[in-house]
Every structure is written in C-alpha cells, then in structure tokens.
Amino acid sequence: MKGITLDYFIRRLGVFVLTVWIAATLIYIIPRVAPGDPIAAMVSRMSQQAGYIENSDKIIEGWRKRFGLDDPWYVQYGRYLRNLVTFDFGYSLATFPTTVREIVVRAMPWTIGLLSISTALFFVIGNLLGALLAWKKTPAFVKVLIPASMVFTSVPSLLAGLMLLYFFAFQLDWFPSLGAYGRGITPGWNWPFIKSAIWHSILPAASIVVVTFGYWTLGMRGMMITVEGEDYMTLAQAKGLRPFYTLYRYMIRNAILPQITALALTLGTLVGGQVLVEYIFSYQGMGNAIFTAIRNQDYPVIQGTSYILILTTALAVFIMDMLYPLIDPRISHEGS
Amino acid sequence: MATVSAAPKRKVSRFNRFDNPWLNPYLLTGVVLILIILLGALIGRVAWDSNLALVGSSPLKQPPVGFSHTTLRGTSVGTWEHPLGTDGDGRDMLAVMIVGAPRTLAIGFIAAAAGMAIGILLGFMAGFMGGRVDDIIRIASDTTITIPSILVLIVIQSVIPVNLIGMALLISAFAWPGPTRLIRGQVLSMRESGYVKMARISGASTFDIMFREMMPNLIPYLAASFIGNMQGSILAAIGLEVLGLGPQRVPTLGKSIYWSVQLSGLSQGLWWWWGFPALILVVIFVGLLLINLGLDEVSNPRLRRKVE
C-alpha cells in the first residue's frame, strides 16, 4: 500500500499486540494479587443465592484443580496466554455443553453491527454539525439550534437508553422493548427478519448517538476555528471559490483529521457504553452475554467475551491506524 | 495579573463585566450544579433519616408525592412520608438519593485524584527524562487509553469483591493515561520556552521548574483533565453497579437502576425507581461537562469569541 512504510506497520502492530497483552495481563494479575480468595468468594456468593452448599470445600478443591491453581505461576500464566491466543476459553459453567466460543460467535455480529451503525451516525452527524457551527455562512437560527440539541452530551448512553426505553417502548409502545429481532422470526437473509432487526436496533442506536454526537460537534468546532486562521483559507477566499466548496474541500478535509485520531482513542469507551446499552435493551449482543454470565457466576464466559471485545477494539484501532496515512500522507513519514 | 492593557486596540464590548476567564458562565453553572447535589446530600443527612435507605424500611412501590400508581391490587397515592416514593424492596427513594449521590461523586473524585497523581508523576518523568523512560511511558499510556476499561473491570470485579475505595482505585488504573499524555506534551513544548530556560539558567532545581514554574500554567489543562477523568470514572462505576457488580450492601445510584431493571420496574411503570437516580446522574454529568467547557474557555482563548 502506498503511504504506509514497513516501519510504521511494524510499530503499529507492536502497539496492537501490546494493548491486548496489557489488558489480558491486568485481568490475570489483579485478582491474584488482591486480598481474598476468588474461588472462596465465588462459592460464598453461590451460597448466598442458593442457601447452604454441601461440601463447599470439595467444590473449592475441585475448582483449584480445574483452573490449575496449584501449578507455579509461570505455568499458569503461560497456559492462560496460550488459551487466549488460540481462543480456547473452555466451557460455559452455566449452560454446560456450550463453549464460550459458541457464545461469542452468536453474540458478536450483533454487537459489531450495532456499534458500526451508531458510530457512523454520531461521527457524521457530530462533525457535520460542528462544521456548521463554526462556518460563517451558516444561518443564525441553526447556530442556536445546534447547541440546544446537545443538552444530553456526556450523559451516559445507558441513562439515555433507560429514558428512551421507558418513553418510546413502554409508554408510547412505538418500538420493541427487548431483543435484537422479534420472537418467532428465523434469522436469515429475508425481509421480515431484516426489517425486524432494523426496527429493534433503532432505540439502542439512538441512545448511543444522542449522547455522543455533541462531543464531536464541540471538537469539530474547535478544529474549524483553528483551520479558519490558516493561510490556505485566505488563499481560497482570494481565489473566489464558492463558500460551500471551501467548507468541504478546505475546512472539513483538514479539520476532520484530528477527529479520526480522537475516534480511535475513544473507541474503548464506546465499546464499554455499548455493552451497557445492550444490557438495558436485552439486545442479543456481547453486553447481554456478559451480563447473563455475571448473574450466573459464569467466569469463563465473562472472561472470554470481555477478552474478545478488548481484542476487537484493539484491532479496530489498528485498522484505523493503517487507514490514517492514506487520508493524511504526512503521518507515516513523521515518525510516531 | 495586568492583562487589562494588553490589547488597547481591541473593542471592549465584552458580554459581561467580568474579564476574568475563570468566571465564565459555563464554569459557574457547572460548579453550582455539582454544589447543589453535594449540599442537598449534606442537608439531607441532617434533615432526613438515612436509615430509610435500607431494604424493607418502608412500604413497597409507593409513588412520589402528587402521583398515584394503579395496579391490579388497587391504587396507591404518594404521601409526604416518602416524598420521592419507595422502590420495590421498600427503600425510601429520597434516602437512597441522599446516601447514593455523594458516594457516586466520591468514587469519581478518588479515582480521578489517584489517576491525576500517577499522571503528574509519569508525565513529568517522561517529559524531563526523555529517552528510554519517555518511550516506555508514552507507549504504555497510548496503549492503555484504547483498552475498554469497563471490560477489564468487569472481569476483575466478577472475581473479587470490592468496597467503594477498592472500586475507585481499580478504576483509577485506567484514569492515568489522560493526564500523563497531557503533561508530557505540555512539558515537551514548555521545556524550550523562554521562562523555563530563564529559570534553568538562574539555577532553579528540576523540581522547582516543574512545580513552581510549569505547574501554574498547566492548571486549567489539569483541571479539565481531572473533570474528564471524573466523568469517565463515574461512568465506569455506574456501569459496574448497573450490571450488578461493585459494593454489594450499600445503596448506590447505579444499584438502584440495577434493581429496577432486574425487578421489572420499567415495565411496571415505576418510573421513580430508576428515574430519580438517573436524574441525579444526568445533573452530575451535565454539571461536569459545563465545568469542562468552562475550563476549555480558560485555557483556549480562541473559543471565547461571541457567537455572531
């Protein structure tokens, strides 16, 4: 690919591997150095839910052996890393013959689908409004309307989800309240299913977009003001270019670059928010899988799903890093 | 500071008489919103019985005063005994708010403060020492910032039980890259500026240059980063609580939402159960956002222009 040097590629790949490794290691180390025995805590929580548990010391014993907790730490850690690399997370404890991998494969498409739709929406809407907010030719009433539409910015998407769910699903009954598609519809490439899936995704996507786009509007406005002062803007005006052409080709083109970097940096937060929105709407994605696993004390599933989401996020950042030099050729030659 | 005579040619048509950038309306409104929450909780502690936040201390599913709630079993009307109603487990919502709201702010504050302390240390180290140290710190913060922290926290907290402080400190493990990157960048650009060179020539120690010379210039940026971290940390804490993790026995705003979702408070139309915690959280988040916008105007004078 033109624009990407080998050095740049290797450096970014290194960052990708490092990100996943740091996250995986944090997950591994913190519970082990923290005070308290995790397995004893799990058993005590089980007994809270189910009353007295017979021979709980045998369960603890069994689990210690099952997780290989009596081996030296480097053997355990090595085995853990190998399992992560080979995507082998074992079986779900709650729904036994199901493997964690099956759960991930079932849930992942929903999460990726919803996340891409909402990301595309808030990124386009947010940046467009931000550009309009800073542009001189924008009508005055639009400049009043845009900030007014941003009141919910920075409110967590899960709260927006709760409110939308309550008003539009339970009170007005305009949208379905749970799931990713209607009951009794077989998933597949048929129109009823696609229609149902879109219908079910509107509220979850809206709860992410409504609270997120304002952040991009603000960022874009700041960038536009900076770009406005550049020499090439004076030149564009002196050339007598049409204002809309200048807006699109001169201002937005330049102002959008830092926004794309910012998108890569906030992706992690976004995925986190999405997990919670899925939970609120019982949307069949990874968020809901994680919640079900938390409720069932299903540790392999919690770990496997979280790890895959972390990996996917890092992968998305890596892909964006690879695309970035194509948009802005200065990057790959500047060094980091 | 004698900034008045700095630009004699500029029109003096400011929109208010305060020329102090710290007194901008965003910042003031934001601070007032957060203070209202804190003061409300403080007065509530004295004026209201916070034991009512315990399960079973009140009748179940009472609507707030002025509202009525009809079920198959009959209609219940809100009374002043429980002004904000009660939840499905018999907690008084007002008491839950009084106990929960300061906890939420405390988690955010502790996590952001710890993250800031680590960030200041690492940021100055990276900026001043350079070389290998800088590389390691820069790569570590660049990678950590892209990790979806809530997922790591979910995995950790589903294994080990935590209390409020423990939760805040765990969250702070992801609150340091922001300030670190910020300080590193600023230190790198300031290191070559005239006043720092001047201080070095006059024999100021590195420590003095960092904290006496550079730090005051960084304050608006640091404050903004602190507030941003508070938002992030509160978000993480609420997220964990809403998923049923975090401190188990104490009532928190997130736990309230968790129970209302779990015990189908939404479909039963018990809006006050999740609505009041959500409202308090919205006020907190909007307040923090306004503070951040205000700080932005302090540190970035170009944003201070009027909307024409």
Can you describe what's shown?
The complex is a heterodimer of chains A (336) and B (308). By secondary structure, chain A is an all-alpha fold. Chain A has helices at residues 6-33, 38-50, 56-66, 73-85, 100-134, 140-149, 157-171, 191-228, 231-238, 243-280, 286-295, 299-327. Chain A folds into 2 domains: 1-94 and 296-336, no CATH class; 108-286, Orthogonal Bundle (MetI-like fold). The longest helix of chain A is centred in the middle third of the chain and has 38 residues, at 191-228. Chain A is globular and about 85 Å long. With 308 residues, chain B is mostly helical. Chain B has helices spanning 25-47, 93-129, 131-144, 149-159, 164-172, 177-190, 194-201, 206-242, 253-262, 271-299, and strands at residues 68-71, 74-77. In chain B, a hairpin with a 2-residue loop joins β1 and β2 (74-77). In chain B, α2 (93-129) packs antiparallel against α3 (131-144) and α8 (206-242) packs parallel to α9 (253-262). At the A-B interface, α1, α2, α7, α8 and α10 of A face α3, α4, α8 and α10 of B.
Strand and helix layout:
The complex is a heterodimer of chains A (336) and B (308).
Chain A: H1 6-33, H2 38-50, H3 56-66, H4 73-85, H5 100-134, H6 140-149, H7 157-171, H8 191-228, H9 231-238, H10 243-280, H11 286-295, H12 299-327
Chain B: H1 25-47, E1 68-71, E2 74-77, H2 93-129, H3 131-144, H4 149-159, H5 164-172, H6 177-190, H7 194-201, H8 206-242, H9 253-262, H10 271-299
Antiparallel strand pairs in B: 1-2
Helix pairs in contact in B: 1-2, 1-10, 2-3, 2-5, 2-6, 2-8, 2-10, 3-6, 6-8, 7-8, 8-9, 8-10, 9-10
